[in-house]
Amino acid sequence: MMFSTYFEEWEVKPEYKKEFVSLWSNWLGKENIHKLDEVTEDDWAHFNKWIKHLAQDFTIELVDCEKQSITRVADVESVLSSYEVSMNKDSSLFTKLVLPELGCVISEEWDYTYIIWHKNNGAVEALSSYITKNGLEHFHD
Predict the structure, then answer these.
(1) Which of 25, 44, 134, 136 sits at a 20 to 30 Å CA gap from 80?
(2) Are 117 and 104 contacting, i.e. CB atoms less than 8 angstroms apart?
(3) Hey, what long-range contacts does 60-64 have (CB within 8 A, 24 or more apart)?
């Protein structure tokens, strides 16, 4: 698929819905915001494990918004960030991946959250067991 299938400029097209993948089952809220400071390297590693497991069963493609291109990932390790790198990463460097078989985008976001951008085409259902098997939760607004 082409970049323009999923994106307008640097943003995922507005017709995509969001499913949030997090360490928690919903938004933390002000009373639990302290949990963000308590996340350990082991907690954070659940995201990399999740992406590695996805790469075993799905094609993973890396999005480059600047070049408006999408490239197949041969080695999933090359797109994973260490805990230290991730904690200091500028949002313009957040990873965006496409799973073409599911027609969805997975984007790295702030506060230990990824977003699955989908069109209610079964992508969330297909990814749900991968999420929970790797110690993560998912929800939508």
Answers:
(1) 25
(2) yes
(3) 60/97, 60/98, 60/99, 61/97, 61/98, 61/99, 61/100, 62/95, 62/96, 62/97, 62/98, 63/3, 63/6, 63/7, 63/96, 63/97, 63/98, 63/105
Could you read off the pLDDT of 69-87 as tens digits, one per residue?
Answer: 999 999 999 999 888 888 8
- In a domain, residue 5? The reply is no
- At 141, the pLDDT band (50, 70, 90 cuts) reads confident
* Number of domains composing the chain: 1
Amino acid letter, 49: K
Residues with Cβ within 8 Å of residue 128, at least 6 apart in sequence: 138
